[in-house]
Amino acid sequence: SGAGPHPTVVLCHGLPGNEQNLDLAQAARRAGFVVLTLHYRGSWGSPGIFSFANASADGINAADWLIAPEQLARYQIDKNRLVLAGHSMGGFVALRVAAARPSAKGLLLLDAWNPGDGMLASLRAPGGKAQYVSRQGNSLNMLAATTAGLADEILDGGDAFDLRREAPALAARPVLVLAAEKANGLTNRRLAESFRASGNTQVGLVIMPTDHGFNDHRIALISASLDWLDQFKRKP
Hints:
The protein is an alpha/beta fold.
């Protein structure tokens, strides 16, 4: 509610999407943002086949849809204040979308998953793919995909799955990396370092002593996110 146009956040969930961070979405909405959440194709009953490439394409389509004239008018969106955000694999999607779309003016990563930093090497090791498939078991049955197929997608993509390669595309835009010490803290630290090494002087890094879902740090997660998002409430 209130006079627009409003800054807007695309919030991307992880794999498979049990944690959608809807508490953060509602808090951002109360703070004056339009927030779009989505299920990728092939997930949670959405038609189509799930893949990492399709999830990234869906994120791009969502960002493009939001800044089409009809949505700008209907939802009072300010196309110059569009932010991408994502948790875990959603961070992978959000970063790829932001790198592909200069219309995204900022990037918020919540313990982002970077398969090119560690996971790719483990999949390439002898027996690595079989171990991954066995470890996942039936935990991904809400996705229209096979676990082996997802592993193959990463193996086939190779180094293109390392998010640090995208850092130069974000060199001029604000980035906040909120990481979980007990999960992806180390790889997120290296990701933040790659942004800084590309000349980005607007990179924030906060590592919280918590797990991947920020389960005992939800209020801290929301507070840090809203403090950073506050810069987009000011019109450029």
